[in-house]
Amino acid sequence: MMPVPTHLIDCVVPLESGLDQASLKAAVRCSCSSVQFRLLFPGQAQEHEGRQIPSTAKIGGQFFFLLKAHCTGCGRKNLLFDADFHGWNGFVCHEPEMAARTRPPLVPWACQSCGGLHHTGIVTISTEGREDFVAEAGDEFDPERWPDGFGWFALDVTCVQCGVMTKDLVSYETM
Ligand SMILES: [Zn+2]
Ligand SMILES: [Zn+2]
To answer: What are the φ and ψ backbone dihedral angles of 91, each rounded to 5 degrees?
Structure first.
């Protein structure tokens, strides 16, 4: 599997079931070792294949997409993804004006089956690989940062209360 992107190093643990060299599957786990969290998002959802999923939020004519895992063990808020900072568009094509905007307030995602707020999660990251990053990102980027130029972020969550697993609750293309 590929290395963990920089911003996730403290809050995910790679799973043994390896994918290819350009992808990563990892469990969300806080540095306090708790794996349970409230999934914080900007509060706007959309219907996808008959169910609700978090969507890009349009707030005051501006667009945001970010997710935090609010640890139920220690209260730390681990930033899982922010489209203005992470992945190809957020990291390689970083726009300082977009990144400087005040982040919107976040609310906890509720399980669509039981309303429960506590989840465990598995992150899947997909890239085009190191060579592609070196060729496409440009000389100003350290080749070792290639995992940060990922093209896809996905999150599966499992509700702690009822056990329902939602695959691809988040599936976000970053380029
Ligand atoms: Zn914690
Ligand atoms: Zn539930």
So the answer is: -100, -60
DSSP 33: S
Say which amino acid occupies 91: F
CA dist., res. 98 & res. 23, Å (int): 27
- From ligand 1's centre to the CA of 167, what distance in Å? 23
Residue 166 has pLDDT above 70, yes or no: yes
Separation of CA 166 and ligand 1 centre (Å): 22
Q: How far is the CA of 169 from the centre of ligand 2 (A)?
A: 13
15-31: per-residue pLDDT in tens?
977 678 899 999 999 99
Spacing, Cα 19 to ligand 1 middle (Å): 27
Q: How far is the CA of 125 from the centre of ligand 1 (A)?
A: 22
Q: Are 161 and 114 in contact (CB under 8 A)?
A: yes
Q: How far apart are CA 131 and CA 118, in angstroms?
A: 39
Q: In 10 A of CB 175, how many CB atoms?
A: 14
